[in-house]
Design goal:
The protein is an alpha/beta fold. The protein has helices at 14-18, 43-67, 98-111, 131-141, 158-171, 189-199, and strands spanning 28-30, 71-76, 116-121, 124-125, 152-153, 156-157, 176-179, 187-188.
Length: 206
């Protein structure tokens, strides 16, 4: 298995996607996306989100189709409107913002190719900058942030997401959409922030 960085293949660059060497590739896993949710609502961000999450993805799907190899596409719970705490795989799309709209459009594109796995996940946390790391840093600095409590979901750790994708490719269940998050109760961002603060020795109510 080999991974490519954005510098090595930017989905928003048609030339880069067309030039991908897939000679010895048995499956494509697309974990790339434009994910700046708020920025996607600006004119520049809107164009960038569509360029990567839809146009670039469409080109990648065509490369998979040319080779006749499966494509695994990482999607998002933002394809829904957030009114439900649990989402079945066949729930109709109901995105609210530009980011969610581009992810829903991408899901439809991928599903148009028979050999596909759409892996829909939520609130991904891995190495580097993320919500949990930011809350831990603020807790350590004595800062008391204001965190929204009107969004519900589950954290998904990148190592577990990667393991789930590897399992799909190893076992090859029926093609289609699979929801994949970590277990545990549905929480708000405020709940998670409180958990982090408590673990860092701060009061949950801070």
């Amino acid at each position: 298995a080999r991974g490519l960085t954005r510098a090595e293949c930017d989905l928003a660059d048609p030339v880069a996607v067309a030039g991908l060497d897939l000679a010895d590739v048995d499956a494509i896993v697309n974990a790339a996306a434009y994910t700046a949710v708020d920025q996607a609502e600006t004119p520049e961000g809107r164009r960038a989100a569509w360029a990567t999450n839809v146009t670039g993805l469409a080109a990648l799907v065509e490369r998979a189709r040319e080779r006749g190899i499966p494509i695994v596409h990482v999607s998002s719970d933002y394809v829904f409107d957030g009114t439900a705490s649990e989402h079945p795989e066949d729930e109709p799309f109901s995105p609210l913002g530009v980011y969610g709209q581009t992810k829903a459009a991408g899901d439809v594109l991928v599903a148009g190719y028979a050999r596909h796995y759409v892996v829909r996940t939520s609130w991904v946390v891995g190495a580097g900058k993320n919500f949990v790391a930011t809350m831990a840093m603020l807790a350590d600095k004595g800062v008391s942030p204001s965190v929204v409590d009107d969004q519900h979901g589950r954290l998904t750790f990148t190592t577990d997401l990667a393991a789930g994708i590897a399992h799909l490719l190893a076992t090859r269940p029926p093609y289609g959409t699979y929801n994949l998050t970590n277990t545990g109760p549905v929480q708000t961002w405020a709940d998670i922030a409180a958990d982090v603060f408590e673990l860092r020795g701060r009061d949950r109510s801070d």
